[in-house]
């Protein structure tokens, strides 16, 4: 089968591509061709069994998207997006890529007669906006507080409608914040959730800008890959017309994260966390969802991490494997 | 002040235009110019005090919309839409007018520096999709089951985001089914809700294609005009970032509607209703919302009809006034 990953150079896309190449199959069918599309070249290497083709381009260019869809991939993962901060800073770019780009993809599929691929779309918990109930249920309304969240929700509505119309077979998954992200610290407001685990484990100091009581909704990189693969292979009949779901995750406080780090890696690692309260980051984080009741996704077979300790242990294994 | 009604030739737009011309003011400020835009010419006549300008065109043409916005109307009512049945039959036309047309309007406003008009947008209860709770609350999620509903919800998301960004001051109102619609019977699946009142009052037989137990969410034409005027003049600060609301209405069964007709107009009118069950219409209507808890709109000062009897009496008065 042919698989296309739009956003194949990002952290989530790369993990997925690496996993598909290593497995050589998706849902029991051999993956013969894997196309990785992004604005920068993806790095995943192919094998004799799985040919990897790397392409770059702009999702807002319809001709580019038409060319990408012309070979009729059986499964399309649409992970590409202008992230929250950039979509807020650049109004036009956010709408052009996140809204028009997604629509270009759906329209390019619609333009191919008799073609009906599985489309897995990564949405975001940014479709929700404060004030929140104690746990956000599957039927809670979506009132985004960022342009990114609005664009992601528009993508959900389009995915649902194009699926209902029989144009494609869509599944939309709202990912939790991915922790522990590998790599260098970044300036995202959510960056410290990974940083307070990743940096101490690497023997480096980490800054904690919020209180220990701050609660957040997280999943490991491996869980994210698992969600994507399940979304690509699941029976979509039970979803009916409601194709988009909040993925299961762990609702943990910063204090619980730090305690888990101590339990897994010892108190000397915890000592590397420096508390430097930052009013700006505190304010941003205060508007984020803390907890979900993601029953529907769980019923549909999506599986969350078992514990935050497991998330830390998985990160340690990944780092050891990467040398 | 200058007022623009996009969709000024439709039933709701015409009622609003007539009301504004008669009142000569909106929120206590004199209306000096009223522009009525639609695909066909609007019929409302101006007065010495209120100049009415009638324009026709296509909302999906950005240059047309730019020209419409160039005089910087203080209040814009955006009522224009490809209706549910047509948007379902013509995929491209529905998205072109309902989604791209709405976006053209918001973008034309954004293109004018320092301009920040009140924009009243009519959404629809079609943003909701079955299965429903017993009464749909203000925080129930939006899962449209038609392309029209998806397009209306995308408009809501855009209106919210452009308002949050300070580009405009939007209020989105989800209208109930308008009963009693004046005029001839039409082929809309919901047409009988008006027909079983309107036709008997005119001494004509009416067909009832569903059971007496069918429950529906309705408001009078006068209430719809009242909602629009309140949305144009209310203080939007209490809305925060959640600019769109389900309007209050009456949840009444067909049996209750018929009993009210008997009470107001007598049993000989009721005798003109012929029960001719229609499986297709029954099926369509079964997927529609029956009841809402529209507390938020009520708290924000929107007022529903007091009773279905009042709705019938108002229709009788309108017909007498129209001769």
TrEMBL record, chains A, B:
Please name one Pfam family that this protein belongs to: Epimerase
Any one Gene Ontology molecular-function term assigned to this protein's record = oxidoreductase activity
Q: Which UniProt keywords apply?
A: Carbohydrate metabolism, NADP, Oxidoreductase
- E.C. code: 1.1.1.410
- InterPro entries named among the record's database cross-references: DenD, Epimerase_deHydtase, NAD(P)-bd_dom_sf
Which superkingdom does the taxonomy of this entry point to? Bacteria
Which top EC class is named for this enzyme in its record? oxidoreductase
Q: Is NADP set as a keyword in this record?
A: yes
Every copy of the NAD-dependent epimerase/dehydratase domain together lies at 3-218
PANTHER family reported for this sequence: ADP-L-GLYCERO-D-MANNO-HEPTOSE-6-EPIMERASE (PTHR43103:SF3), NUCLEOSIDE-DIPHOSPHATE-SUGAR EPIMERASE (PTHR43103)
Q: What is this protein called?
A: D-erythronate dehydrogenase
Look up and give the organism this protein is from. Paracoccus mangrovi
């Amino acid at each position: 089968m042919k698989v296309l990953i739009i956003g194949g150079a990002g952290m989530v896309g790369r993990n997925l591509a690496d996993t598909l190449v290593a497995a050589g199959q998706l849902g029991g069918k051999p993956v013969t061709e894997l196309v990785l599309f992004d604005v920068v070249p993806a790095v995943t290497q192919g094998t004799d069994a799985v040919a990897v083709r790397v392409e770059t381009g702009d999702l807002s260019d319809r001709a580019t998207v038409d060319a990408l869809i012309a070979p009729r991939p059986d499964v399309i993962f649409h992970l590409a997006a202008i992230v929250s901060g950039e979509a807020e800073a650049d109004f036009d770019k956010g709408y052009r890529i996140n809204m028009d780009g997604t629509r270009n993809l759906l329209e390019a599929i619609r333009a191919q007669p008799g073609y009906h691929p599985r489309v897995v779309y990564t949405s975001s918990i940014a479709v929700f906006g404060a004030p929140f109930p104690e746990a956000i249920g599957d039927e809670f309304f979506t009132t985004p507080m960022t342009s990114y969240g609005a664009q992601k929700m528009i993508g959900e509505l389009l995915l649902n409608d194009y699926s209902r119309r029989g144009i494609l077979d869509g599944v939309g998954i709202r990912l939790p914040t991915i922790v522990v992200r590998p790599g260098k610290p970044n300036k995202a407001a959510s960056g410290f959730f990974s940083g307070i685990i990743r940096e101490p484990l690497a023997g480096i100091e980490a800054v904690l800008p919020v209180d220990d009581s701050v609660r957040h909704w997280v999943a490991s990189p491996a869980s994210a890959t698992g969600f994507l693969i399940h979304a690509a292979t699941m029976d979509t009949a039970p979803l009916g017309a409601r194709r988009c779901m909040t993925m299961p995750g762990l609702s943990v406080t910063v204090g619980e994260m730090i305690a888990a780090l101590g339990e897994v890696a010892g108190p000397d690692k915890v000592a590397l966390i420096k508390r430097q309260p930052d009013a700006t980051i505190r304010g941003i984080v205060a508007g984020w969802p803390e907890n979900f009741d993601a029953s529907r996704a769980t019923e549909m077979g999506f599986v969350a991490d078992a514990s935050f300790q497991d998330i830390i242990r998985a990160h340690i294994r990944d780092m050891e494997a990467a040398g």
